[in-house]
Amino acid sequence: MRTIAVLNQKGGVGKTTTVVNTAAALAATGLKVVVVDLDPQAHLTIHLGLEPDTIQSGSYRVLTQSEKFEEAILLVRPNLWLLPANIHLVGAESELVSVVGRETILREAIRLVGGKFDYLIIDCPPSLGLLTLNALTAAEEVLIPLQPHFLALQGFGKLLQTVGLVNKRINPKLKVKGVLLCMFDSRASLPNEVKADIEQFLNNARDTDCAWAQACILPVYIRTNIKLAEAPGYGKTIFEYEQNCHGAEDYAKVAEFIHTQSQPETHPDTQPVIADESAARPPIEITSISEPDSQKSQSQLTEETAVQKQPESQ
Question: Contact 9/159 with Cβ under 8 angstroms?
């Protein structure tokens, strides 16, 4: 079973939309997929047509009351299961603060269902707290949906730093496998500049031991499409709401890429997307920074990243 955490601490970048529609596309091919809602806002649960207030079980009870994972999931579409969420998940972090091994609860919960599903995809909350830590401890791959704007990039380095720390200290199998550009307008210059800058940064990480050394920008991007914004209001996937729109076409390609082209851990030879050399030099730089000496040891260095905006001319 491939376990994928869809992660970005910034809200509104397409995490839930990506989880729902990628999972639906994979399930439509006959693969068995389970999606996990770890966001107290329960947007994934709502998007799949369930009312959070009616949820009697779900991710809250799995995390705080040791409920069995396989008893808490619901079949919501053919070949597609959901571990739902509701507002009670807000209190999970405070309730687990004194629990030993609190960051590994989800990993232990899914251990017994690994042979029953082909994919487990986690919708992380827009934060880097205990719920997200549980997702990163349980997952082996990270997919980062990213809106190609300057503000969306500001937390990119912090996000990679968090993944790197989890990789070194808790879950050595965890790797960033891809960045998915959402709400992408190829006609504008800014998205292409940001895309080229991220590609250069990821290419510079090749042949290192950092958690994103194998990452690439997916060669498929999600075009701006109003149908993607309308579908959650009807509790439908994009394929149920409007199967002939750009959003459905794009997410079908994302699912195909993840399943057939994105290589598993045993084949770390995924080829990066080559940046357009004719693109103008972007006004964003992503550079590597080092921890203070007091936080490092000779035997272990933690690579962090920071996104810095160049000074603008007055």
Answer: yes
